[in-house]
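for the recovery benchmark. tokens below, seq after
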């Protein structure tokens, strides 16, 4: 494997690299959520936390309906990570409202 191929494989090994290489539409909901979460903690990656959230609440829509205090019960989610998720969800809601007006 060439060094260029190794570089591409390394970038794809995490969600942010995949997004940069292939675009956001190539990422799963779990990967996009992991990008918002950013980092995990010892023994659990941001991707693992994202999987846990989506499993617990069944979907992105189910997760959007949860309060910050409810989401904070997931180990590894503290203020900064929760505010990123809440901001992304609020932007999504506002985009939907704007589209409904058109």
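predicted aa per position
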């Amino acid at each position: 494997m060439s060094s260029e191929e190794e570089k591409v494989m390394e970038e794809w090994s995490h969600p942010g690299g995949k997004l940069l290489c292939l675009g956001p539409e190539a990422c799963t909901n779990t990967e996009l959520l992991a990008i918002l979460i950013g980092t995990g903690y010892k023994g659990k990656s941001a991707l693992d936390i994202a999987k846990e959230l989506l499993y617990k609440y069944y979907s992105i829509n189910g997760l959007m309906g949860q309060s910050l205090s409810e989401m904070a019960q997931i180990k590894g989610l503290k203020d900064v990570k929760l505010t990123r998720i809440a901001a992304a969800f609020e932007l999504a809601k506002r985009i939907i409202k704007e589209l409904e007006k058109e």
